[in-house]
Automatic annotation (TrEMBL):
GO biological process: one example: carboxylic acid catabolic process
Function: The electron transfer flavoprotein serves as a specific electron acceptor for other dehydrogenases. It transfers the electrons to the main respiratory chain via ETF-ubiquinone oxidoreductase (ETF dehydrogenase).
InterPro entries, sorted: ET-Flavoprotein_bsu_CS, ETF_a/b_N, ETF_b, ETF_beta_N, Rossmann-like_a/b/a_fold
Keywords noted in UniProt: Electron transport, Transport
Protein name: Electron transfer flavoprotein subunit beta
Assembly notes: Heterodimer of an alpha and a beta subunit.
Length: 249
């Protein structure tokens, strides 16, 4: 079985995002970029499934600028076999990404798509669900545990009340949550080997997909600075502040 793993290039999670001076978005020039952490978990899970003999090939795909090749090489250093970059400089939204991924799925014909539940740059948590709907495939979102056997996949999902188990027919789409696994570090020998693994580049415009944005960003602003806390002398003073200053009672 072939596994397809979409990965996204985002501002590194250790970097504090800065809003552009004109308020048009988040500054990415001169900022450390890396693979979306949830996508790292997806790559790790795909590699583990291959190590168990469930998968025969792992293909990673990214949609974006040329510099996204770096995270594809990282994924191949972790254990993916080859990579595809759908190259575009256009602004992308979950619907457009899902359409482009659908085109890649039609081209690659995988038995399973494993992807992060969301990207840490926009936190939309929508691409996996849209992709499953467009493919008309079953989906197991927020995966905590994944087991593949007898042509089916069992996914334990993280839900508000605890864990929910779903059993899906293949092919299917699975989105990964934080507690699914801990991604491995790429060793230096594997980093060197990844440089020789095939990386194909496809122009997004050649896939016959309308991925034009449907949303318009009006303005991006920093969150308001939180005021420092204060101590009160007694309950009466607390109630007074809640009534007169916070105006919550």
């Amino acid at each position: 079985m072939k596994i397809l793993v979409p990965v996204k290039r985002v501002v590194d999670y250790n970097v504090k995002p800065r809003v552009k001076a004109d308020g048009s978005g988040v500054e990415t020039q001169g900022v450390k970029m890396s693979m979306n952490p949830f996508d790292e978990i997806a790559v790790e899970e795909a590699v583990r499934l291959k190590e168990k003999g469930v998968a025969s090939e792992i293909v990673v795909v990214s949609i974006g600028v040329t510099d996204a090749q770096a995270i594809l090489r990282t994924a191949m250093a972790m254990g993916a076999d080859r990579a595809v970059l759908v190259q575009t400089d256009a602004a992308l939204e979950p619907l457009g990404v899902a359409k482009l991924l659908q085109a890649v799925v039609d081209r690659e014909n995988p038995g399973l798509v494993v992807m992060g539940k969301q990207a840490i740059d926009d936190d939309m948590n929508a691409t996996g669900q849209i992709l499953a709907a467009r493919l008309n495939w079953p989906q197991g979102t927020f995966a905590n545990t994944v087991t593949v056997a007898d042509g089916r996949i069992e996914v334990k999902r993280e839900v508000d009340g605890g864990l929910e188990t779903v059993r899906l027919a293949l092919p299917a789409v699975v989105t990964t949550d934080l507690r699914l696994n801990e991604p491995r570090y790429a060793t230096m020998p594997n980093i060197m080997k990844a440089r020789k693994k095939p990386l194909e580049t496809i122009a997004a415009d050649t896939l016959g997909v309308d991925f034009a944005p449907r949303l318009e960003t009006i303005r991006v602003v920093e969150p308001p600075v939180r005021k420092a806390g204060v101590k009160v002398g007694d309950v009466a003073e607390l109630i007074e502040k809640l009534r007169d200053e916070a105006k919550v009672i």
